[in-house]
Amino acid sequence: MPAQTVLQKLEILADAAKYDASCASSGTAKRNSLGGKGIGSTEGMGICHAYAPDGRCISLLKILLTNHCVFDCHYCVNRKSSNVVRARFTPQEVVDLTLAFYRRNYIEGLFLSSGIVKNSSYTMEQLVEVARILRDEHDFRGYIHLKTIPEADPEIVHQAGLYADRISINVELPTDSGLTRLAPDKNGRQIEGAMGKVRNDIVELKDACKRFRHAPRFAPAGQSTQMIVGADAATDADIVGKASSLYTAFNLRRVYYSAFSPIPDASAVLPLKRPPLIREHRLYQSDWLMRFYGYKPTDVMEATEADGNLPLDIDPKLAWALKFRDQFPVDVNRGTKEQLLRVPGLGVKAVGNILTSRRHRALRLDDIARLTVSIVKIRPFICTVDWRPVTLTDRADLRSLLAPKAEQLELFGV
Amino acid sequence: MIVTPLARSDASYRVELPAPDDFEFWRDKARALVQCAIPPDRIAWIEPGGIGDLFAPGHVPLPVPAPDAPPVRASKQFLSLAKNAILHSDHNRFSVLYDLLWRLQRNGRLLEDKADIEVRQIEELAKNVRRDSHKMHAFVRFRLVETDPHVFDQLTTDRYVAWFEPEHHILRANAGFFVRRFSNMHWSILTPRGSLHWDGTTMSEGPPAQRADAPDGDPMEDLWRKYYASIFNPARLKVGAMLKEMPKKYWKNMPEASLIPALVADAQSREAKMVAEGALEFAERPETLAAIDKAIHVCRKCPIGQLDNEAVMGEGPRNAALMIVGEQPGDQEDREGRPFVGPAGQVLDQHLHKAGIDRGTAYVTNAVKHFKFVQRGKRRLHQNPGAKEVDICRWWIESERAIVKPKLVLAMGASAARGMLGKTVSISKVRGAPMTLEDGSELWVTAHPSYLLRLEGSAREEQERLFAADLAAVRGRLDELAEN
Predict the structure, then answer these.
(1) Which of A5, A54, A62, A175 to mutate to test the interface with B (most CBs of B within 10 A)?
(2) I need a labelling partner for A32 at 20 to 30 A (CA). Which of A181, A302, B87, B328 fits?
């Protein structure tokens, strides 16, 4: 077989990386290349340099170093028993691609992951080597996200954190039984152990930074993880519970959800149908409710239906409001911030605007309409000077009145 | 002597801005006009190339505020909002801003009133400008020109040029972003509103440019397009979400965008193909053994099913406490349609008898349902099933387990163990002790009886001893389980 070109390798190794949901490049330390020898900057907010037709942002060059793997995880296209074409980049090839793309302003940086070759520590060393060449030899100051292999030597993982902005370790599946069944070579305790170690390193070196000016930075954009949704029997309530325990136990920046999607050469242990994409979306919405709206995991669990899953036709906030109608309507001129944040259709920004505006005027329905996207959705849950929903809030068919009509976007998606 | 023009109570004024994005000029003039108490309706703000106000009278010199005029009140928040909003291409932006500044003098906290129509209007303008700037950071695409192959340090000789069409007057305001990011690169950004050139140390501004002034390609774009096409997951098409963040107006200057129509058109057929190849089209799990029997006879999910053979169903009581799992049917099993009736079956029967296990009380089946072989003349030679084939067939053995619900499963050979565990294990390491399966039942792993047939002499004696010991242990465990 003739040697693969970089173009062919890129095709194989980008294709293999696309099942990773995260592409964020935000939340790291501010840097720029002024006074340096190389290129690159990070300014807090991440930049999405393009969007693929799957609606996902392309911010980083997201590739695998290799898709050879000694593990045999059933949901993974790169598992040992899969018949996909294999390829392997050298660290230098990844460095060259990253810099060439970065100079043309295609990307914010690199998101590097890998199948496991030889053993976990060897693979992790190779990943760290890419980051080292970029940072030390090219003075690259863009964003680097390294996927960490939980079984690797902790010392190498620590090295990774010194070069990378973000480190992630995938918990893969929300339940231990799912992990045993679908990722027989992985071990839940080992994964969480590695996450705990990374958390400690972050805390320790952040503390050192306060005391010593030249203390090294360790993963300034924190750590994140990913769970596959719909490949095992876990309900949304299970998943939300797991996510919230991960957030608190490991100070995670983000928990990403990836709806299990059909992969070429799939294993027959996988489920029959892929979960609707909207399920992943509902989980992200619930994640938002917990992170920005003051919902507790138990609040989200209360919004689930009898089968433990969030309704697909309406968002979790509306689902909660419909279950707890006695909490509504909220008077926009008197309600507390916490109460307003629970009103379906009112975002964090709109609530902030309501709170400052009402110091200047008694808010009318028109005013609220100007501050929000859709007044029709909000109306049943609020009172203003000139509006009371009267019986609307208690109507039995409120859900069907508010549920969005079948969405055009999903036309292709089913 | 210079006569200072005083504000005339009835005069209207024209303020001509030198550049459409000149915030400092607008701020200075607006401050003076507020100090002279000129109300908004008597000022026309004219930008270069903009439409002059038809009703504005000729050149009346702008008034100069008295030295003791009260200072102008403008919060930091207003200034940062105005700085952004002034870059908008809306011709009314100067007058709306002046109007707000005018009203701010009476109500210093006016900006807090987000329901105010003008406050909303300005916030909207500023938001659009921020969005346009953000899209510029994201969608500018540099192309390489002027490479000197003889110079080693390419960074200092290569020049990169981009063509971009911003919607608002944001070019100059965003120069800093590109300088901070590409400070050691030589680059130019050309736009219809002006151009920027950076040589690694200083910034210079140039006149408006045309698309033809920029290079029309870059060798790296093939790689970038390949990346764009490969990172897209056809199984999750969401065109609306893409269009929301990357509207079509930007597409013409992005090399990757030319691929989008074909990617979208192909996506559904690619997904359908993946699902078909992945054999994910099983319907619901069969609920009876008869249904499994029927289904495996038409199963063609793996290459073994395509061979000239018949599926062999497991046999035994529907509620057996013990399930015995082998690898796959052999030549004789395939002909008779029953498991373990060939030479290996005889070895199994002898050992079961010795261990005191009645085969009639056990459910006997195979990890793979069809016989895998190669034809050699008249003979069909047995071949081991691949890991992938075992995994595909796991669906059936799991369906059988779900119905029979054995308390103990005896897996014989590596394929049977893989069919139970989903991973390949070493028999010598796991034999002799039970493992717990996810439904709570116990799994015991031992060698396959046909392995014993292939050995000779002392090796065979040793393995027969181990096999017998495993069966004896299973027997003992079955008795214990029966008591509980």
Answers:
(1) A54
(2) B87
